[in-house]
Amino acid sequence: MDFLYPYAIIAGYSHFILKGTPIMSLSDAERARWAEIDSLVADHKTSLKAASTHEDLKEFATEHGLMNKKDFGKYKVSLRKIGVDYESLREKTFKSRDNQRVQQLADLPEAVPTVRLWTAAVEKDTKASFAIVDAENTAVWYGDFFPNDYTRVPGDIVSAEQSVIEKAIWIAHKAITARGGDVGRVIITTNYPDFDSDDFAAASVKNGVAVEIVADPDDTRALDMAQAPGYQRWQDTNLADLVEDMES
Fold first, then answer.
1. Does a structural domain hold residue 222?
2. Could you give the count of Cα atoms lying within 13 Å of 18 in the half-sphere of its Cβ?
């Protein structure tokens, strides 16, 4: 089936095009609405270009009746015509907030729920596995990577190591929550030398956990487990027991 390209929306043309042939014009009402929104945005160009967050742009849209499915897309296109990229500003807003949250988590006092975990990944022709173990060398979660793992790229050890650390951050969050905490700290020891805490800022913010990464190539407890046959489900681990007593 031939594909219908909505050039009217993307580039301001007045036709939809099927293999280069105009087949349907915008209605007079649609053209009038596009022009109305273009004019509105142009009239407020100075204030819109001064917006510091995407929420400022959303507030403008709300005030002028543009926060609906039909108009908001037109509004974003009109913004681009005056040099304002809504999606880019939205991304910057969230990134700024994430950075602030990471700093808040980094400034947590010492006496917060803390979890210590060791991680490792194996990425070979015949085996792709991971392991998370605790301070007593007990498996918390280990086994083969699932084919649809969000982070790991098959054959790439860096992404595999990143994936298991992200899993450990999530496990720490689950453990702290199981003990009734809202925020806490996780200290993760990995064999992989090229990661630091900044690499996991997004996971830190998402899980409400301050992340400290320790690289120790000589500590192979997690690697030994990752190479072992079998598996351990995280659901079979008493996660609350992973949280250190704050008095200790």
1. yes
2. 7
